[in-house]
């Protein structure tokens, strides 16, 4: 189940092997158009969704926009014990990681808690 406060979506393709953020979901930009509808449904209870690619100049922003156009960024919902969904009144925040993974590496690359496989 996704974290109810934060989900990080990494849309890099071949450059994904260069390391990643912990606790993320990898959905390559090439597969994203086929997965976006399902992702919107899966994350409707998440308060913040962060997208990124290598530099967050093309693939990350494109994925975030596609996510919004497919209904992401709406009211956050929670499930009650009986399985029914209720809106919380909060609106999901959809953002792009400034500087992408390259910027993240420059700032946090040496911290193994914040960067994996680099």
From TrEMBL:
Signal peptide: none annotated. Residues 2-113 form the Rhodanese domain. InterPro entries: Rhodanese-like_dom, Rhodanese-like_dom_sf. It comes from the Eukaryota. One of its GO terms (cellular component) is nucleus. SUPFAM superfamilies: Rhodanese/Cell cycle control phosphatase. PROSITE patterns: RHODANESE_3. GO terms for molecular function: protein tyrosine phosphatase activity. Gene3D superfamilies: Rhodanese-like domain. PANTHER family: ARSENICAL-RESISTANCE PROTEIN 2-RELATED (PTHR10828:SF38), M-PHASE INDUCER PHOSPHATASE DUAL SPECIFICITY PHOSPHATASE CDC25 (PTHR10828). This is Rhodanese domain-containing protein. It comes from Ascobolus immersus RN42. The lineage of its organism: Eukaryota, Fungi, Dikarya, Ascomycota, Pezizomycotina.
């Amino acid at each position: 189940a996704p974290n109810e406060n934060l989900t990080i979506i990494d849309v890099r393709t071949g450059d994904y092997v260069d390391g990643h953020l912990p606790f993320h979901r990898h959905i390559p930009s090439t597969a994203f158009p086929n997965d976006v509808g399902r992702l919107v449904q899966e994350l409707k209870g998440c308060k913040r969704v962060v997208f990124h690619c290598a530099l967050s100049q093309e693939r990350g922003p494109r994925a975030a926009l596609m996510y919004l156009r497919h209904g992401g960024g709406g009211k956050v919902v929670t499930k009650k014990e009986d399985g029914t969904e209720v809106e919380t009144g909060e609106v999901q925040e959809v953002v792009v990681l400034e500087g992408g993974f390259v910027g993240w590496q420059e700032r946090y690359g040496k911290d193994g808690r914040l960067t994996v496989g680099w």
